Amino acid sequence: MDFTSDKLRSLVRKWQTLTKAHIDVKTTDGYLLRLFAITFTKRRRQSTQVKKPTYARSSQAREIRKKMFSIMTREASSCDLKELVQKFIPEAIGCETDARTVGASPLMRLLYSIGGRCSRF
To answer: pLDDT tens across 64-75, in order?
Structure first.
């Protein structure tokens, strides 16, 4: 599960903040995975946001990244590899992260992928 370079380049736009996170997690069946997450900020409702850019402050980006780390660690370490891949398909992890980070900054897209080699210990 990985993104092609043209897909990633098509997602990046001006006037928004890109936040990346990656973490190494061990599943219950012994696989060590490196999970990647990419998020983009979105505009608040038109009535509350007047300016064009939707940048997140560095403290907001750290808070978003911290919540992404905790959700990825909890979800991946509590199931095996097959169940984890099934969680990625309906984007259940992305919806939970979006709901938990609304206070910091609203997020437009949450993309997760499993990168690198999966090694079993």
So the answer is: 888 888 888 998
How do strand 31-41 and strand 18-26 relate by DSSP bridges?
A: antiparallel
- Which tops the pLDDT comparison, 61 or 93? 61
Provide DSSP, the chain.
----HHHHHHH--TTB-EEEEEEEEE-TTSEEEEEEEEEEE----TTT--SS-BPPPHHHHHHHHHHHHHHHHHHHHTS-HHHHHHHHTTTHHHHHHHHHTTTT--EEEEEEEEEEEEEE-
pTM for the whole thing?
0.71
Tokens of 61: 């980006």
